[in-house]
Amino acid sequence: MRIDLHTHSDRSDGTLSPREVVLAARAAGLDVVGLTDHDTAEGWDEARATAAEIGITVVPGMEISCAYAGRSVHLLAYFPDPGHEPLQEALRLVLEGRDQRTPRVCAKLRDLGIDIDEVEVARGAGDAVAIGRPHIADALIDLGVVADRGEAFDRFLSPGRPAYVRRYAAPLEEMLGIVQGAGGVPVIAHPWGRAEPSALRVEGLAQLQGLGLAGIEVDHQDHDAEQRAALRGIARELGLVVTGSSDFHGAGKVDHDLGCNTTDPAELERLVALADRVAARRTSPAAP
Description:
Layout lengths: L2 E5 L10 H10 L4 E7 L5 H11 L2 E12 L2 E8 L6 H27 L6 H7 L8 H10 L6 H9 L12 E2 H10 L3 E4 L13 H9 L4 E5 L5 H14 L2 E4 L20 H19 L5
């Protein structure tokens, strides 16, 4: 069984619709695919309907923008109830932060002499609920300023670059509790891939586990072999679930092909068992 638990559709910053992601997953030989758009569950129904047609399993999830120890951290929340009010409110604040950042980034780009309009960015984002820097990058591509998203981030949009703007991200410690309250299972995405990892070594991960962290995304393209081995050792020491995935974005991200990293079926079973346990606690008469 081949399992990829981290993909994005055009409901956030991917380039394929949820239906197309599921069809592509089947074409890539996957049996299970997780749809984890940024800060939204908008694509779940379409993905599930397609999965039922073609005989593949969709794991519903979302990748939530969080902050921890002064750095950006992405939290993969699997199986949460999107109607849970505290989760809805937390996601509203994150999405509002995204919306407020876009015009500020565009203003910085205009100060650099680039004629970019946030209205056009939003139009280009199409069905996306979570509009972010990748959509600004797409607008820069359309303007002929850069060749691809990678160049846009390298030249303008990453931290330390001239058009970078910070935005609100949910406190990770709080979000772990909110995700569990929504019946979800929280897994940290690519913890050592995009920033200095000191806060997410064994001590930090143990602290987060005490707050409800269930797993670590170990096998990811942003982790080299040495990092993967070290993270796998930490997960084994702490008893955390180990996941692997592509972080697929369609044409929006190169070298992240569906199934390039996968999750062991036994680890998915652990995730599902944890989700069942959380759901049972939510529905128990003794639950608060």
